[in-house]
Design brief:
Keywords: Disulfide bond, Periplasm, Redox-active center, Signal. The chain has 222 residues and is α+β, with helices and mostly antiparallel strands. It is built from 9 helices and 5 strands.
Amino acid sequence: MPTLFKIMLALALCGSSAGASASPEQPASGAEYLTLAETQNTDAGQKIEVTEFFAYYCPHCASFEPVLAEWVKKNSDKIVFKRVHLGHTPAVVPQQRLYYTLESMGIAPQYHPKVFTAMHEQRQRFGNDEQVFDWAAGAGIERAAFTTAYRSFGIQAKLGRANAMVAAYKVQDWPKIAIAGRYLTSPTQASVAAADATEAQQHQMALQVMDHLVAKAAAEKK
């Protein structure tokens, strides 16, 4: 019995040690982030491409947005930042089309946060095209120009590319951050070893992992 106890104790200590070795400060593939089996093409030159997969209706995406925006601003000299709005169900497509219309019109930086506010604070529902058009006009965007862009072939092509990227990156939950076309993390993933972390703490852990992966990807470019 003493020998069995020693073996069990040793196994417990090994498990504890392994768990301690992974953290947002020293993240590990398979724990705080995932490594894609096949690296995706990126177009960021000497900088590192960082892509957020998100959806407007998602409350976790909404709460992560201001934290992420500040991180992007802070790292603008190192990264090229992109967003991909998911379109996984027909009900979400008007929101997806809304984002890409704002992007194509060059007004996403101004209006992107306002869409989150409209959905999660003002309880607006962008469930169809007319609701989107009404919001855009109410937000000060010229309705006819917005509607034309929204219904254009160019926006339809953007939706196709977005859906293809979601499939290629195997995104199944969001918000999800892809770095250098190879690494994936998220607030939930980054805090995998901290089950009792608050959402705010999860955000900070995600930023730590993202810092690590940007540095890792930059080193791999050399």
